[in-house]
Design brief:
By secondary structure, the chain is mostly helical. Helix content is about 80%, strand content about 0%. The protein is built from eight helices and no strands. Helix 2 packs parallel to helix 6 (about 130-155), helix 4 (about 75-100) runs antiparallel to helix 8 and helix 6 packs antiparallel against helix 8 (about 180-205). The radius of gyration is 17 Å and the shape is globular.
């Protein structure tokens, strides 16, 4: 059994050329995010969750259509992916209340969503295994970002404000919950999505 600390540092080493491409792509995105947002982790989370909410919906839709075409059960993939998409959407609804993005960041949300949706849709059609690996690595970076966010809160650099009501209701947090509790909850979700998508990619590798 892995400890919580091990969960935070878990990294799936690339095993194939497509894995390296997926990993490299996410690292490039991470570089741009670091340059643009620096330590504005709340604003980074808003844009990150806009991207992270796309794969589950695209994958769930395409798995649904595949199940219809093949007349075969999906083994639970559709619900898992759609639940992931909804979870990431709720992350966005939460951090919108925390970060209050400006007009440019809202425009960036639309631009990034359109570009990423189109690219991910095509990628999933071409190689669903690579698509899930991309998400696995994306979620690895999300776990890192939320961990850094938490460190800034603990250091007092970022104010540990009251948790928004939407977060309290969604994660069933106590009424006196703070931002720190929200970040921990969101990070645990990302850990689950990371492991699920790497597992899906591994299963597709064996086919």
């Amino acid at each position: 059994m892995t400890s919580p600390d091990q969960d935070l540092v878990t990294h799936r080493s690339p095993q194939s050329i497509t894995d390296y491409i997926a990993y490299g792509f996410i690292k490039v995105l991470r570089l741009f995010a670091d340059l643009f947002f620096a330590k504005r982790y709340g604003n980074r989370a808003v844009v990150l969750e806009t991207v992270a909410g796309v794969p589950g919906m695209v994958g769930g839709m395409l798995q649904h259509l595949k199940s219809l075409r093949s007349c075969k059960e999906d083994e639970g993939w559709i619900k898992t992916l759609l639940d992931e998409a909804e979870n990431e959407r709720m992350h966005l609804m939460t951090f919108i209340q925390i970060a209050h993005p400006n007009w440019f960041e809202r425009f960036l949300i639309i631009f990034v969503q359109v570009c990423f949706f189109s690219a991910y849709f095509v990628l999933y059609l071409v190689s669903s295994k690579t698509a899930h690996r991309v998400v696995g690595y994306l979620e690895e970076e999300a776990v890192i970002s939320y961990t850094q966010y938490l460190k800034e809160i603990d250091a007092g650099t970022i104010e540990n404000i009251e948790a928004p009501e939407v977060a309290i209701k969604y994660w069933n947090l106590p009424q006196d919950a703070r931002l720190r509790d929200v970040v921990i909850s969101a990070r645990q979700d990302e850990i689950n999505h990371r492991d699920t998508n790497h597992d899906f990619a591994d299963q597709l590798t064996k086919l």
